[in-house]
């Protein structure tokens, strides 16, 4: 019995040694051999997915790429604020003259004026003084035969007189329509030549008359004129009435 058991044990050891040599890692055992059926177990199940690893470090910037194609034009933007005016540019050359325009309608200019002087000494008192030396009377609104200015254009007029005084006192007055408007008195100084003058603005209607005359008696009639001394009377229209 002991010899039989020892033989069986030796056989197992020899078989194990043979199988161990056959399991060389570089030589895969034939799955059909008895040893493979004895040593190999059943295939295992796939393992679970591992935990994701950490993010790696950012890489270095790559080389600059080539210029891309020009894109489509975008929509027009909002208008910007007005900028500061720039400096004035150089002056340009003069342009060519334009065409001559059509002749316009002429406007009527109202004119009325006179300037006259005395030619006789000591004119008669209480009647219009006749100034017969004509300096200007283009419109003939002054009548040298009567010594009166006759208004032809209604409006505002200016009248003035400058009289040489000699040998006697002078009292004169400017009349409008038989009514004295202003008075002038000059007292003569012996061995001297003096001047009496006056001026006034008057509104006249067409047909009104204006003149100058000595008032009082003949003792106050020193109005004088000769070849080197003048006594003058003048008047002119400042502006006509609008109507």
From TrEMBL:
Disordered as annotated region, ranges: 24-106
Biased composition (Low complexity): 88-100
Signal peptide coordinates: 1-22
Record has Secreted as a keyword: yes
Feature: compositional bias, Basic and acidic residues: 54-70
Recorded superkingdom: Eukaryota
Domain C1q: 107-243
Subcellular location, record wording: Secreted
Keywords: Collagen, Hydroxylation, Secreted, Signal
Listed GO CC annotations: collagen trimer; extracellular region
Major location (coarse): secreted
Name listed for the protein in its UniProt record: ADIPO protein
Species this chain originates from: Eubucco bourcierii (red-headed barbet)
């Amino acid at each position: 019995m002991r010899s039989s058991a020892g033989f069986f044990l030796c056989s197992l050891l020899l078989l194990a040694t043979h199988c161990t040599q056959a399991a060389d890692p570089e030589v895969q055992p034939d799955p059909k051999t008895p040893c493979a059926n004895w040593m190999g177990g059943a295939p295992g199940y796939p393992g679970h997915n591992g935990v994701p690893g950490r993010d790696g470090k950012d890489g270095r910037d790559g080389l600059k790429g080539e210029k891309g194609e020009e894109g489509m034009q975008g929509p027009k933007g909002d208008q910007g604020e007005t900028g500061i005016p720039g400096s004035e540019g150089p002056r340009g050359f003069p342009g060519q003259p334009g065409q001559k325009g059509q002749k316009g309608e002429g406007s009527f200019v109202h004119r009325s004026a006179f300037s006259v002087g005395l030619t006789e000494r000591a004119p008669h008192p209480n009647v219009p003084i006749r100034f017969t030396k004509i300096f200007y009377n283009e419109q003939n609104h002054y009548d040298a035969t009567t010594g009166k200015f006759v208004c032809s254009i209604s409006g505002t007029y200016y009248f003035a007189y400058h009289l040489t005084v000699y040998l006697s006192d002078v009292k004169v007055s400017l009349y409008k329509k038989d009514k004295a408007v202003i008075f002038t008195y000059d007292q003569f100084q012996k061995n001297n030549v003096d001047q009496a003058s006056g001026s006034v603005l008057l509104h006249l209607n067409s047909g009104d008359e204006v003149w100058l005359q000595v008032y009082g008696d003949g003792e106050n009639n020193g109005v004088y004129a000769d070849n080197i001394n003048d006594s003058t009377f003048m008047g002119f229209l400042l502006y006509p009435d609008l109507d």
